[in-house]
What we know:
The complex is a heterodimer of chains A (108) and B (113).
Chain A: E1 3-5, E2 9-13, E3 18-25, E4 32-37, E5 44-49, E6 53-57, E7 60-65, E8 70-75, E9 84-90, E10 102-107
Parallel strand pairs in A: 2-10
Antiparallel strand pairs in A: 1-3, 3-8, 4-5, 4-9, 6-7, 7-8, 9-10
Chain B: E1 4-7, E2 10-13, E3 19-25, E4 31-38, E5 42-51, E6 54-57, E7 65-66, E8 76-78, E9 87-94, E10 103-104, E11 108-112
Amino acid sequence: GQNIDQPTEMTATEGAIVQINCTYQTSGFNGLFWYQQHAGEAPTFLSYNVLDGLEEKGRFSSFLSRSKGYSYLLLKELQMKDSASYLCAPLPTGKLIFGQGTTLQVKP
Amino acid sequence: EAQVTQNPRYLITVTGKKLTVTCSQNMNHEYMSWYRQDPGLGLRQIYYSMNVEVTDKGDVPEGYKVSRKEKRNFPLILESPSPNQTSLYFCASSFNVMNTEAFFGQGTRLTVV
């Protein structure tokens, strides 16, 4: 079966750093995506990891440990516009599945 | 502009009245899928299609139908909508199902009364 676990809500301060964790169990594994979704809008792609380690892209970084079934998304220098839901999406064989998402609220 | 287009954006309908939500992509993507998003349940896959004339059930296919007669279009059909199908629906496409990002349509907010 498939199982994805990430915190429901997080709060952080503008300018700070926040780490959003995701653990997963899937039948087969072909990588893991992170998507950002603002309220009422479509998800948009942030990152993709297929090998263990850290992928950095500007203020956002994503980490993967395949042996532990674990990933995190790191957001640096938080801005108010980063208030959104962040969806962890592992890729088992044949389909893309999503966690319930972590709603991040950035406060001034 | 590369995009996935869904129509309509908003729809209120009555129980039992057949409806179709259209989805079209202009990126020549092979893989297309439909999701519904409900509070506390996240995005759940309804149906997906690996290519033309190839469709398969996702996690919540009951009450829905799809077709993939041409590469660009992947309509979602509700033959007899019920109130429990009230939801926010997203169509998505990607080059293939593997290591390529998915592009999402703008979403369709459906209310069945």
